[in-house]
Amino acid sequence: MSLGPKQIRELLEEYLVIFYSKVSDIQITFLVADKEQGIWKANIKFKRDPSDLFYNIAMFSIDATSGDITQFKEGWTWRY
Fold first, then answer.
1. Which among 74, 54, 70 is positioned nearest to 3, based on CA atoms?
2. Burial of 65 (0-12, 13-18, 19+ CB in 10 A)
3. pLDDT-based confidence at residue 24 (cuts at 50, 70, 90)
4. Are strands 69-74 and 24-34 parallel, antiparallel or unpaired?
5. Of the four, 40, 41, 52, 59, which is 20 to 30 A from 32 by CA?
6. For residue 77, is pLDDT > 80?
């Protein structure tokens, strides 16, 4: 796997800013490398707007070599 956790975090922040322009308070609650599938699995907690009271959640699946998103579902999380 060529991308590490730090690079995945940066990519996730970039993707969320692209999806939601005013996103704030981004927190990664789960990040695991699945070496068999060659992906990183991540759960994210974030606010779409700084004035929001509650967090939104989303799950990502990111290709470990290219950094491309292979799966994104808002309102879903990976199971531990």
1. 70
2. exposed
3. very high
4. unpaired
5. 52
6. yes
- What share of the chain in percent tops pLDDT 70? 99
Q: What is the pTM of this model?
A: 0.87
**How much is the pLDDT for 2?**
84
Q: How far apart are CA 78 and CA 38, in angstroms?
A: 16
Q: Quick one: three-class SS letters along the chain?
A: CCCCHHHHHHHHHHHHHHHCCCCEEEEEEEEEEECCCCEEEEEEEEECCCCCCCCEEEEEEEECCCCCEEEEEECCCCCC
